């Protein structure tokens, strides 16, 4: 019996599901299987990684740290089907392939790539396109893939069939559907609409949250002071496009860079809740090898929390173990990789560390005695809030204080003397997977889901999702030249109706006069929202109650927040409707769902959560099909 599946979204997540379907289809699937990938953007790279974007934009991962394929570290139910990482693909293409097939610019870049290079997004686009072709070519007999360069606009049922209506007028009748659309656009929030209305009344320019690569930056005039709210990756993209993208350039200046302006650039005044850019990506490898993980926040600790029935309070019950696990990764790398900088052998320190509670006086005493240099001790508070307590009388006085912290963070992330940062990073990836299991179990208190999980996600992003070092050097050059001014932590913005400007200040300069500007950019992605989505398929499903948004209420029924996320069953991504029923043949995976998975692609050799979850979803989809071998058994 032949069956069919539709995957809505043909970017890395959709391709990852296709790869896992192909791996497990011989054991689970029906005799014939057609898989339809639907996406208006190029299949493989999808919207975010499409070739048609500025050649200046780079990944924030090194070439050796990107793969779409399982390896022998991945613990999953389906077969392991190894494939090349980005770095292995690049090596093979330039030694035994045809780099010139990529075009002259990408061919030149490919020939210069090393394992530690941060490739352009255009070259990543070429890798992801190749991955899709390789996955399709490797599908088992009887399994076929079909690509549809259009948008899915509706999904209804006819009996047991799922009917997907496409924007080009075609209709797909399939047995199961996977929604893998990635970040969903959303209409502005009430607060953003109100801000936009006040700005329009005052004749100001406001750019709301969106993908920076899709923003119309021509509305930002040369020489204008521009307020920027947000210092994450969208901010980094904004800086690239407004400075180097407008003809400016960077030249070596001793150990630093010097910015040479084009005359077309604005002047940015930027802030955020933290007031600092994300921490720089590590530029080195582990000296001690991968830490033995999980150690304190693995199944042995998380399973009892899950089976307790809850409610589990994340800050009180989970965070001490999470923090201890992150510190374990840091100190394993320090003691084993840099034994000359510690006063105890690793086995002794590890045994004592294991017996103590994180945050206890005894733990602090152990670390202080064993690690003489404070820079070698992990400080989670400083990592999360690097400007905490920093105050200045005015913005000019604040600038060297912020720049010094950015420069020191850069130094520690490029100098191999500080590889413990990478040990902590690896531990955070392990913790992330266990937090996903815990949050999907239903035992976390509503307040923990409303407040604890967002705080953890924000901390993870700041520590683990930062820019490469060369971008930080460029940012420092712009700051020294006066083209980027940091406003500090706790940024606030309003509209001065009398003066006809935006005004901004921060907790770092509480007594300074506000900065006035006629342009404001919210440099971040829109907050997820099912009810405000611009996706026609999701909107249609929501209107019929076929999807539902996660709404969190306290124990007394008081509304805490709507997360904006599509509710799915944690184990396999099955859609949960407005009545709380799980659909047997509709699934969703990605950042728009209640299951948070760290990235659509991942580092090799890390038992990656994204690969494990793709496998679980794909096998659930196969088992849902008529004629599936598991069903027959």
From TrEMBL:
InterPro entries: FAD/NAD-bd_sf, HpyO/CreE_NAD-binding, L-asp_N-monooxygenase_NS-form
Entry protein name: FAD-NAD(P)-binding protein
Record domain FAD-dependent urate hydroxylase HpyO/Asp monooxygenase CreE-like FAD/NAD(P)-binding: where: 6-183
Organism: Pseudonocardia cypriaca
